[in-house]
Amino acid sequence: MENIDLINSFSDFKDNKLIDRVTLMAILEEVFRGALKRKFGQDDNFDIIINPDKGDLEIWRNRIVVNDGEVEDDNQEISLSAARKIEPDFEVGEDVSEEVKLSDLGRRAILSLRQNLISKIHEHDNTNIFKYFKDLEGEIYTAEIHHVRHKVVILVDDDGNELVLPKEHQIPSDFYRKGDSVRGVIHSVELRGNKPNIILSRTSPQFLIKLFEQEIPEVFDGLITVQNAVRIPGEKAKVAVDTYDDRIDPVGACVGMKGSRIHGIVRELGNENIDVINYTTNNHLYITRALSPAKVSSLKINEENNTAEVSLKPDEVSKAIGRGGHNIRLAGKLTGFEIEVFREGVEDDVELSEFKDEIDDWIIKEFTKIGLDTAKSILEQEVDDLVRRTDLEEETIYEVVRILKEEFEE
């Protein structure tokens, strides 16, 4: 057969791309039928015989013999005189099978054949890769860093598949170097054109849940269930766990003696502070546990609008809110309630927002970030401690303290 390079490549495609025989033959026939259709206008009267293992290919065109001068369709019909040049005993109405050489298709068609063949093989590969990773969405996957860019890290797995780790899916404290192995969950898989776009995530709560399954045997075995997990990546996370076995302490089993079990997870997540609490369907108890380490004095829930009013002693408020408001924000996300904190025994206190004419709004926000939203809650603190816990200058804090003291001296 002509075009030895094209024919010899059949076996290479089969071996290198790990395509099964049936699929390879279907792709080859599709490509050749496309070429025949472009050349002859239609392909339904052609037989294509392929043996990819040996590199054999035969194309036969089937036509009906008609009287000389009565040929209306050159592709479907052949004149009696032309047919008898193939076999001298043909008669009108009989079928003639004639082999079509690749050279009959023309040089351009042969080049196009090879390009289309390669394209179809790649398309088949991409479809299989897409299906493979689509089934892995939400599962942990490991790949090696191939290239580090400003807003994305490009990774490659052992099979040469490319994954991407965008900036928004990176833990802020992570540092990436070429050749390092990275773990995350397959966050999403999409087709861009014909190429699968595989997104790896290290910030997804699902990554934390899967790490629990990997690191804690009772979770892996199903004795302990992770009911919910919420994160501020690299900063803080809260995980609610439950068990059907009364003999098991789910929190203790997850944390381990002196944090031994959860330590590996914390290290993987850039020293993310992880609170593990017992899940319950009792919303009062669930919210109380979610606000740990703060101790709640009283709690009022509005089930209709999913809000909760929490009363705490003044020295517990900052614990409930947490650094940067992380604790109360995660507690709300974990329980599904919007939580509002109130201090006990401060009826004669004044909300910090009442001083917005004298204190800039951005300064007020700096105090509320650390759970200080009233005048007395700030006046009860040492200035040095406020400097340490906020991004405010010492002079600014002294000025705020002066303004607040004047309010109570009047």
Automatic annotation (TrEMBL):
Main location: cytoplasm
Keyword Cytoplasm: yes
Subcellular locations according to the entry: Cytoplasm
Transcription factor NusA first KH domain sequence ranges: 202-279
GO biological process: DNA-templated transcription termination; transcription antitermination
Residues of the NusA-like second KH domain: 286-344
GO molecular function, one term: RNA binding
Gene Ontology cellular component terms for the protein in this record: cytosol
Domain Transcription factor NusA N-terminal: 5-125
Family: Belongs to the NusA family.
Subunit relationships: Monomer. Binds directly to the core enzyme of the DNA-dependent RNA polymerase and to nascent RNA.
Function: Participates in both transcription termination and antitermination.
Protein name: Transcription termination/antitermination protein NusA
Encoding gene (name): nusA
